């Protein structure tokens, strides 16, 4: 008698199917259902599983998908212009029996506002804290424009002696606007209200040219936005001399003028956005998951979170169903149907394109 060798399974010598694991992963990282809640839902269907079992399955799924995640990270950080932001992530410290605050650094690419060539994507990189060294490690091979907030840890990236060359930092106007808005809410300051009005004029122009080619955006900004910001800068400098150095208004003005070069970089580069809304939107799913799950159970669990959330949230940019995508990709990788040298076929935008019906055939 000859027995056919059993096909590889996602969990070696385990019972769960790829479909089941994909369903659990999608529920947790796409729809923010904690594993404990999922065990209760399964129990209601007569399936008794301990939460630690589901944890093991999630970690195995992340292990299989890590090479694809690495390729996605390389793809994003190879772009000439990248958005960057970070968000806190509580991670359980089992030795001290409490959580410590780690970080997820989010790097995103989206050229759609200027009809650019890069495929929209987002990746999350786990770091044990918010020290600037993590950003330098992540961006060791990056050169180009980085759109960020005013976190001081980015400043070393602009040094000429940096191994990969200096990175150009573009700041977000919303960060400057927020300081005036908070002051206006607190005190009803007429000066802060006028600052908001002048900033709003810039946003009105941006709303009108969003989605146009980069060259056209630059042309409009040079003709319309540049004079507005020139008047705004003069106005800021005038009011700075009239205010107490310790006042909240003076602090808001100094912040704006101190970051002026990075704030107006978008005037001469049509690829640059006036804000970092692209990457801020990618932080929201992490915040929802954090609110429901409270914390990651270990650094290894946090890294698995980064892997799975990167692939799922990039897929959402293409309106891909997370469960369908994960089930198919995991099946292809585990079975060996997609080899390591063909992993690019499983990147969300390539995967979706391969499943599209041929031209002329209705879906």
What is the strand and helix layout of this fold?
Blueprint: H1 18-29, H2 35-43, H3 51-77, E1 81-93, E2 98-109, E3 121-127, H4 132-138, E4 145-148, E5 168-171, H5 173-187, H6 190-209, H7 214-242, H8 248-258, H9 260-263, H10 277-293, H11 299-316, H12 322-335, H13 348-355
Parallel strand pairs: 1-4, 4-5
Antiparallel strand pairs: 1-2, 2-3
Helix pairs in contact: 1-3, 1-12, 3-11, 5-6, 5-8, 6-7, 7-8
Please describe the structure with a list of short key phrases separated by commas or semicolons.
alpha/beta, single chain, 13 helices, 363 residues
Task: Explain what you see.
The protein has helices at residues 18-29, 35-43, 51-77, 132-138, 173-187, 190-209, 214-242, 248-258, 260-263, 277-293, 299-316, 322-335, 348-355; strands at 81-93, 98-109, 121-127, 145-148, 168-171. With 363 residues, it is of the alpha/beta class. The mean pLDDT is 92. Strand 1 and strand 2 (98-109) form a beta hairpin. The radius of gyration is 24 Å and the shape is elongated. A 5-stranded mixed sheet has the order 3-2-1-4-5, with helices on both faces. It has a domain at 173-274.
